[in-house]
Amino acid sequence: IRTLAKRAYPKLTKTGKINVLVVGGSLGATVFSDVVPHAIEQLPKTVLKRIHITQQCRIADLPRVESIYKSIHSITHELGTFFKDMPDKLAQAHLVISRSGASTVAELATAGRPSILVPFAQSLDQDQMHNALALQDAGGAVVVKQTDFRADYLAETLIDLAKDPKILQNMAKQAKKHGSPEAAKNLFNEVEKII
């Protein structure tokens, strides 16, 4: 992931493909299987033909998500329960829809990828909300509570983001400014100084 800090945000135009990566942590998140496919169904054809979805799903959710995407003839998609090539998936993503655990937010910032973050509501001390808000405050993410994360909301958001590539490009730039790809090295140096 750290090497992505040196890679540019993928080219994005007003008519080109928009690669959307949907991940829910190491085990996936059913809320994304419940909401994202139905949001995609609501997109106008002009936006729909531009979207490519790569989505992580729980095993139990795969058949129904696959069924919905197969019924949308103009959508290209890739589904899986776990992606071994996550750095490559993240490198190709124009937009990430995700939970907001600490490592996820750090990876998004390091890679400089714009995101729609849906914090896990039952997380300890609301740490996922705090992580997400830090990236939103930096200009690199949009944060939405799980109770507000509905298909109509997501469809409208995707339509708005697809209209102007500069929005996602600017979010990518702001996310990267918030990143700290040398965090482990910096921590090591501080520990070494103390020792």
Put simply, the count of helices is 9
The CA-CA distance between the termini, in Å, is 29 Å
- Tell me what portion of residues adopts beta-strand conformation: 5-15%
Strand order of the largest sheet: 3-2-1-4-5-6
Oligomer: single chain
Give the radius of gyration. Answer: 17 Å
H and E string: EHHEHEHEHEHEHHH
The shape is: globular
Mean pLDDT: 93
- Helix/strand/pairing category: alpha/beta
- Please estimate the helix content: 40-55%
Count of β-strands: 6
Sheet having the most strands: 6 strands, parallel
Query: Uncertain spans, ≥5 residues at pLDDT below 50?
Result: none
How would you describe what is shown here?
The protein is of the alpha/beta class. Helix content is 47%, strand content 14%. The chain contains 9 helices and 6 strands, in the order βααβαβαβαβαβααα. A 6-stranded parallel β-sheet has the order 3-2-1-4-5-6, with helices on both faces. The protein starts with 17 loop residues before the first strand and ends with a helix. The relative contact order is 0.17. The mean pLDDT is 93.
Quick recap:
This protein is α/β, with parallel strands linked by helices.
Characteristic terms for this protein:
195 residues; alpha/beta; 6-stranded parallel β-sheet; 9 helices
SSE layout and pairing:
Elements: E1 18-23, H1 30-41, H2 45-48, E2 51-56, H3 62-71, E3 76-80, H4 86-92, E4 95-98, H5 102-111, E5 115-117, H6 127-137, E6 141-143, H7 151-163, H8 165-177, H9 183-194
Parallel strand pairs: 1-2, 1-4, 2-3, 4-5, 5-6
Helix pairs in contact: 1-3, 1-7, 5-8
